[in-house]
Write a structure and sequence with these properties.
4-stranded mixed beta sheet; alpha+beta; about 140 residues; 4 strands; globular; 5 helices
Length: about 140
């Protein structure tokens, strides 16, 4: 089965930012620049991985985000969900080592919406919060 890939506006904006950086390096005669290699990897994921095997259990997130998937490459993460025959790319974002710590801190402090807004990530359809069972 082949899936159609659709980009949300924030994902499309990020895609074009990566594309512009890569194109600038190509225009400068640097085809092996990290920006070019990163964009080529994004293209490969969008054109092959997400169109043929988007429901790979290894990419499935857990907990309240269990209906979302994430593919990470060296410098970029692509977050998406699958709807019937379409893959909806929600975000294409640089991988930052502190993202996990920031996410856990935002959940614990009740500021998850603010964090998601700052990254232009569409909020999930459920309420995410911390329970006392998770703390103890």
């Amino acid at each position: 089965m082949s899936y159609r890939v659709e980009l949300t506006p924030p994902a499309e904006e990020a895609y074009y930012q990566f594309h512009r950086r890569a194109q600038a390096e190509l225009d400068a005669g640097r085809p092996k620049h990290p920006a070019v290699l990163t964009f080529e990897e994004i293209q490969r994921i969008l054109e092959s991985v997400l169109t043929t095997n988007p429901c790979d259990p290894a990419c499935l997130l857990m907990g309240p985000f269990a209906d979302k998937y994430k593919v990470s490459i060296k410098r970029v993460s692509i977050c998406y969900d699958v709807r019937q025959e379409a893959v909806i790319v929600r975000a294409i974002s640089p991988v930052e080592p502190l993202n996990r710590q920031m996410l856990l801190k935002a959940i614990a402090s009740g500021n998850l919406d603010t964090l998601l807004d700052s990254y232009k990530i569409e909020k999930p359809g459920c309420k995410v919060g911390q329970t006392s069972a998770l703390v103890n």
